[in-house]
Amino acid sequence: MPETTDNTESKRGDMSKYHLKCLSCGKEYEDDHFRMQCDAQHEPSLLRSVYIDKKLTLHKDKPGMFRFYDYLPVERTIEAKGVPVTYKSTGLAEYLGLENLYIIFNGYWPEKNARMDTASFKELEAPSVLARISEHNRDILVVASAGNTGRAFANICSSNKIPLVLVVPEVSVKKIWSIRPFNECVKLICAGGNSDYFNAISLAGAITQLDGFFPEGGARNVGRRDGMATTVLDAATTIGKTPDHYFQAIGSGTGGIAAWESYLRLTEDGSYGNGNMKLHLSQNHPFTPMTDAWIEGSRDIAPMSEEEAKEKIHSITASVLTNRKPPYSITGGVYDVLNASSGHMYSVTNPEIAEAMDLFEERENIDICSAAGVAAGSLIKAVKNKTVNKEDHIALNITGGGENKLRREHDLHFLNPVLSISEQEIGSDGVTKKLENMFAAVL
What we know:
alpha/beta, Rossmann fold, 7-stranded mixed β-sheet, 15 helices, 33% helix
């Protein structure tokens, strides 16, 4: 079991507690707060944070997810109370005939001490990304999102008064809300018209080319991955061992990568058993590029035209699971962690999502988001196909829940866009100059 401490200081200097390692060539780096890739010339590869102290210590004195401070690539903490809450299921477990089903609940459910005010586990990404950045930095962070990530960054940046430019597709603007008014340090820009997440990423990339702005980095950012990895840390410290199976829906796949990296750290700790943790990752049919590639046994995702991609994206329930350029093939990416874990991928239809969401609420007494419905739907499939055994220790990551409850109990404040760039303008030669002129008026 993990050690616990009430000390407010880390056991060693913060910046010496970890380093970054390239998963392709093995080159190591001291972190400079911003490094996202290796300098060596080789195929694309993720960096991974390597912590000097292999034993997991729980810092009860630190806020929210920062209780796992020693496994986070940060030099400070910030205001953020969200933390995963793992509990042993009774209702859903009984229905599925599972003896050791554990729910990792990420959302709003005060009765379970779940207090993510954005109702999404993306609230685990933002604090570690932001705390990784030096507090002396004066440039403005740029984040692209399909909804939940953006809401989390907007909320955490607002409460900590950290400047942020958030870029989302126009269809996702309604997902950027808070239970308290936003601070003016947070600015929302939308990729207009029929734009999707990929268009928002392109627009965000154009903004980061301007002086005074820098990118969040997505899956390449160890702060994002290690923040999401706290779901497995919480599950293992609750169960007393690493799960035999870990279920999660994915859009970019970053959460699946993070889960596996967390498992590897717990294996090095040595206190949580030595069994393998199989990853069970899922997508919403028909937008299933990673699932299709995995089932085909391919390291590469099949090409998809923009027209086909957008048609599929607009037809699915879980719209947040729609990354057209996910870190699947990259060294250390989704393909590699699925291989390493002898994992599985699933395709879950809209009706199956609706059925799973209803079943979860009926059996566990809390609403869940559509992406969590994808994960629950994949667990149902795994049980039917006997991919898991009834006595196995299974962790189901509910990546968002309690939003309906939150909306009943709180008034919401929505963030209005200060700028809108059309889909046609995003890729044009003149977009940089237009952005410069528009920012001069609003920042």
